[in-house]
């Protein structure tokens, strides 16, 4: 489900230059820093829509 949600939100914000990347190991992906951690899907959607 997270993949589908991320893909939908990426397409929704495409014209704003937003790139959504979901990470499971923050230490392995330091090149994406700074990043924002969210606790649940509602927070995730809210943050993306408000970008």
Write the layout of secondary structure elements.
Layout: H1 2-12, H2 41-49
Estimate the mean pLDDT confidence.
83
Approximate shape:
globular
The helix content, as a percent range, equals 25-40%
Low-confidence stretches: none
Largest pleated sheet? none
Q: What is the end-to-end distance?
A: 21 Å
Secondary structure tally: strands = 0
Q: Which sequence of SSEs, written as H and E, runs from N to C?
A: HH
| Tally of distinct domains | 1
H/I helix tally = 2
* Coarse structural class: mainly alpha
* Gyration radius over CA: 11 Å
In terms of DSSP E residues, the strand content is under 5%
Features:
mainly alpha; 2 helices; 51 residues
Description:
This protein is mostly helical and 51 residues long. The chain has one domain. It is 39% helix and 0% strand. It is built from two helices and no strands. The longest helix has 11 residues, at 2-12. The two termini are 21 Å apart. The relative contact order is 0.22.
Write a concise synopsis of the structure shown:
The protein is mostly helical and 51 residues long.
